[in-house]
Specification:
binds flavin-adenine dinucleotide; alpha+beta; 3 domains; Uridine Diphospho-n-acetylenolpyruvylglucosamine Reductase, domain 3; 4-stranded mixed beta sheet
Length: 309
């Protein structure tokens, strides 16, 4: 992008515009996945919906490529485009809770942790993902599932309305009453239908939850996954389990003898009555996953992932 275009963008927008010559450029282009190494021509940090509308119009009029950054957490780094412009929504983070209506209005650049922090004070929550640094934008528009999903549905199911800047730079609110077709499309359509500057979510009463982690040696992964697939559908909706492969961190709650070891495991969340917490997990601890039967063996001949089993 020539300096004239960059300067013109700076005068058009309220938020800062960062180009390759700026000191913060390399820090700004870092995303969650450190394998991603893209070089946008510019980052536009939008201060508000007006900035997003102006940025979209400017980018389109200048024939540039466009990407949108919510939390910057997507694995393939979808928020960065080589030689194009990234519209960065991070200045547009913030949450307003209405505890009477049980709704939260959430800025398009907010993280899951912002939402949880704001709603927890009121004994309320909406289902989101498992990592607090994920953006509400990418997660909601992709569906969104996490600890509360078995009880309260996907994040997208709990999206009541969205303020959206469309490709022509215009602004609409999508809800069941206005533009319901757009609301439907946003529920899983990713970033393809417009830039969401604000989400409104339905909240549910959630106060104290029970959590647990169960881990097994990594060579039991097949058994654990086979068991997990059978256990979860018949468990009460209060129970959610997130399967993971990880190296055990060197600290509590993990016993010292397994620190640093590669394990597989399930991170559990129990949203029901805490008096029933132990009971809900009895069958997880005893007998737990059994060795898989030959019926469940991998059908792929000479599968490299299974070569050790
Ligand atoms: C370690 C890890 C754990 C994860 N855990 C979960 C999980 O528990 N549950 C789950 O459901 N998903 C999970 N995900 C997937 C995650 O939800 C998606 O990668 C999501 O797209 C990240 O959103 P983001 O806004 O942070 O990412 P970004 O990279 O900023 O954006 C991702 C995509 O969404 C678009 N987008 C973002 N914000 C907006 C907006 N406001 N308006 C329009 N488009 C927007 C972007 O343009 C881009 O196409 C996980 C991912 C990782 C890497």
């Amino acid at each position: 992008m020539d300096t004239g275009t960059l300067e013109a963008m700076r005068t058009t927008l309220r938020g800062p515009v960062i180009g390759p010559q700026d000191a913060e450029y390399d820090r700004t282009r870092q995303v969650y996945n450190a394998m991603i190494d893209r070089h946008p021509a510019a980052f536009v940090s939008c201060a508000d919906a007006a900035d997003v509308m102006a940025a979209v119009t400017f980018i389109r009029d200048n024939g540039l490529e466009l990407a949108v950054r919510g939390g910057g957490h997507s694995g393939p780094g979808l928020c960065l485009v080589d030689d194009g412009v990234t519209i960065d929504l991070s200045p547009m983070a913030g949450v307003r809770v209405d505890p009477v209506a049980r709704t939260a209005q959430v800025g398009g650049g907010s993280h899951l942790g912002d939402l949880d922090h704001a709603t927890h004070a009121f004994g309320l929550a909406t289902p989101t993902g498992i990592i607090s640094m994920t953006g509400v934008g990418g997660l909601t528009l992709g569906g969104g599932h996490g600890y509360l999903t078995r009880r309260y549905g996907l994040t997208a199911d709990n999206m009541l309305s969205a303020d959206v800047v469309l490709a022509d730079g215009s602004f609409v609110t999508a809800s069941e009453a206005e533009h319901p077709d757009l609301l439907w499309a946003l529920r899983g359509g990713g970033g393809n239908f417009g830039i969401v500057t604000s989400f409104t979510y339905r909240l549910h009463p959630v106060d104290t939850v029970g959590v647990a982690i169960t881990v097994w040696p990594v060579d039991r992964t097949r058994d654990v996954l086979t068991w997990y697939r059978e256990f979860l559908p018949q468990a009460p909706d209060d129970v959610y389990g997130f399967f993971a492969l990880f190296a055990i961190p060197p600290g509590p709650p993990f016993p010292e003898e397994i620190h640093g070891q590669k394990m597989c495991g399930v991170v559990w969340c129990h949203t029901g009555d805490l008096d029933h917490f132990e009971e809900a997990f009895t069958s997880v601890r005893e007998p737990g996953p059994r060795p898989s039967t030959s019926r469940n063996r991998c059908p792929t001949p000479r599968c490299r992932a299974c070569s050790t089993s």
